[in-house]
Every structure is written in C-alpha cells, then in structure tokens.
Design a protein that fits this description.
Blueprint: H1 2-47, H2 51-59, H3 61-102, H4 117-172, H5 179-209, E1 219-222, H6 223-232, H7 235-240, E2 244-249, E3 255-258, H8 260-278, E4 283-290, E5 294-301, H9 323-326, H10 335-345, E6 349-354, E7 359-366
Parallel strand pairs: 2-4
Antiparallel strand pairs: 1-3, 4-5, 5-7, 6-7
Helix pairs in contact: 1-3, 1-4, 3-4, 4-5, 5-10, 6-8, 8-10
C-alpha cells in the first residue's frame, strides 16, 4: 500500500533527527542535574563550617553519599520527564489515534500541535489516513462499477440471445408455414447473431482501450484526407438512409500525430451514430478547422436532438440515452465510450452539444507544427 510505504519512508528519514534530539535532551538534563548537584555541594561546604554539622556529616558519610546519589538520579529523571512531558503526551495521542485507525475507523485526525518531528509525524499520519480513505472509496467505486458492468453486460447479451433462441426453436420445431417464413426466422436469428457479435467486439475493444499498458502507433497524418477516406466508405449507408453528406474544410493541410486505425474507428462510430439517429434530418455535415493550435472536427446531424439531461452521460459505457426516443433496442452503449477512450489516448477532448436543432460532436486534437 502506497500510504504505508510513504509513512515508513518519512519515519525512517526522521529517525536520525529524533535520535539526536533525544541525545540533546539527555545531556541537557545531565547538565541541569550537575548544576543542581553543584549547588547542593556548595551548600554542604558552607554548612561544613559549622563544626557540629561537619562532625555529624563525617560520621554519616555513607548515608549522605547514598542520599546524594538518590538525589542525583531523581533530579536526572525529573528533568528528563519535565523536558519530554509534552512530547510523551503527544506521542500517546498519536499512538491512540493509530490504534483507532487500525480498527478501521478512518474518520479520526491527529491534531497538529507543533512543527517538530512529532508534528510532522501527525501530519504524515493524517495524510496517510486521507489517502487510505480515497483508496477505499475508489475500491468501492470500482466494485460498484464492476457489478454494474456485469449487470448491464448480462442484460445486453441476454436480449439478442433470447431472440436467437426463440427463432431457432421455431425453426427446430418446424413451426413455420412455408419456406418464406423459414427464411424470415433465419434472417432475424442471423441479424441478432450479428448484433451479439458487435456487442462482444465492442466490449473487447473497450477493455483493450482502457488498459493502461496499451501502446498506440502514432504517425503524422493529414486529418482532412483521413476524413475524406472515412466518409467515402459511408456512401452506401448514406444512400440507404436517404441522406447527403457535406464536408467543410479549407485547402490548408491540418497535420496531427495520431494512430490512424484508432482515429478511423472514432469517426466510424460518430458517423454511424449520426446516420442511425439523424436520418430524418437528411444531412450529415463534417467540419474541419483550426482553433487555438488545435484541430477541431465537428460531426453534425439534424435529427431529433439528444435530451439535455442525457448530454453529460452519453460517453459513459453502457449509457444509451433515451431508448424510446430513438426506438433503440440493440445499441451496445459502448460506441461513444470507445470514442472518448481513443481521443483521451491522443490527449484530445470530445464533447457533444445541441445547437439550433442540430446535434454536434466536437473533437479537438493537437496540431503538429
């Protein structure tokens, strides 16, 4: 655990300083004790001028020596306790707090009463407790995310699988009236199998993209040319949806350093969404421009806009917005999450806005000089 390691390192660094301070306290106590003993000896010398006392002292020299030795020890202990009283009490507070923390209570804090090593130790412990709380909250969040992932994945896999099993059962039990019905059932089962494959492929791709060890193969590329190549591949889909694309950009080259395969996937996902949900708008606009040393790509459709309450969440995995609005029953909810992951791998940003009955996805990537 990193917080424990940090605490151990800081304690190790402070150990030498504390040792020297203890040595200093010891010698200071010894010096004060010596001073007191010197005063006592001076008092005895003055008292020894009185002949009866001098005789009495010599007769009981061993007893006086033992008493002086006991006084020496008591003075030494007394000065040590007096000089370390505050630190010992503070150390006891720190120990009690650490015992409380060890029992799982992370809502406690050690008051920072000084700026010395113990005060710094208290600050370090408080920082450790805070970081442990953050780690535990993150762990809890990851656990909830994992449970949500399993729940959503189970639901999204079960939906097409149930349809496949239903139609395959009709075929297996020969519950069709003619060959046309058979082809119809088989066609639907085949379509659902494709939907299931797309979902699984998206899930694997998203898992790969969110892997912190993933490396991307960047190269210098002309963003305008890449967009042209991508949109040409969608001409059949646009024709089928009775849509027309419009590409707006200047003749100036906009060069970026990016992984072309991953970037094509981004534009594929966004254009597919625009065709799927914006076909009633008849137009698909793709704009490319420069903005503050960045390349700005806007993919715009004129279909029914995304609801304002859905806008902040459209890039979250398995979030499919208002399904009744789109008539959507087969979306994986991973397409836009994949888009966001790829853009963030390129240190860029992706956002979505509703603008005058238009839905615009905006991508910003750094331009290479």
């Amino acid at each position: 655990m990193k917080p424990y390691g940090e605490l151990a390192t800081k304690l190790k660094n402070k150990r030498g300083t504390i040792r020297y301070k203890l040595i200093l306290v010891f010698f200071t106590s010894a010096a004060l004790t010596g001073l007191c003993m010197l005063l006592i000896f001076m008092a005895l010398i003055v008292a020894s001028k009185n002949h009866p006392f001098a005789v009495f002292f010599m007769q009981h020299l061993i007893i006086f020596s033992l008493l002086l030795f006991v006084v020496l020890i008591l003075l030494m202990i007394g000065f040590l306790l007096l000089m370390t009283r505050g630190s010992i009490a503070y150390l006891e507070d720190i120990t009690k707090t650490l015992e409380t923390i060890s029992k799982g209570n992370l809502e406690v804090n050690i008051p920072v009463k000084s700026s010395d090593e113990l005060g710094k130790l208290a600050t370090t412990v408080n920082s450790m407790v805070y970081k442990l709380k953050i780690l535990m909250e993150e762990e809890k969040s990851w656990e909830n995310t994992k449970n949500d992932l399993i729940t959503n994945l189970s639901h999204d896999l079960r939906t097409p699988l149930t349809s496949i099993l239903g139609y395959m059962e009709l075929i297996a039990d020969v519950k069709y009236t003619d060959e046309e019905s058979l082809r119809h059932y088989a066609g639907i089962a085949f379509q659902k199998c494709n939907e299931l494959k797309v979902l699984i492929d998206n899930l694997f791709e998203y898992s790969k993209l969110t892997n912190s060890e993933l490396t991307i193969n960047k190269s210098l590329l002309n963003l305008g040319e890449l967009l042209e190549q991508v949109i040409l591949g969608f001409i059949p889909a646009l024709t089928e949806a009775e849509m027309e694309y419009r590409l707006f950009y200047s003749n100036e080259k906009i060069m970026i350093n990016a992984d072309p395969i991953l970037l094509v996937r981004v534009f594929d996902n966004l254009i597919s969404n625009a065709i799927k949900y914006g076909s009633e708008g008849k137009y698909l606009d793709i704009e490319l421009s420069k903005a503050d040393h960045e390349a700005l790509v806007r993919i715009i459709n004129y279909g029914e806009p995304i609801l304002d309450e859905d806008l902040p969440f459209v890039f979250e995995r398995f979030y499919t917005a208002d399904k009744s609005r789109f008539g959507q029953t087969n979306g994986s909810g991973l397409g836009l999450a994949i888009v966001k992951s790829i853009i963030e791998l390129h240190d860029g940003t992706v956002t979505v806005h509703n603008l005058d009955h238009r839905t615009a996805f905006e991508i910003r990537l750094r331009i290479e000089a």
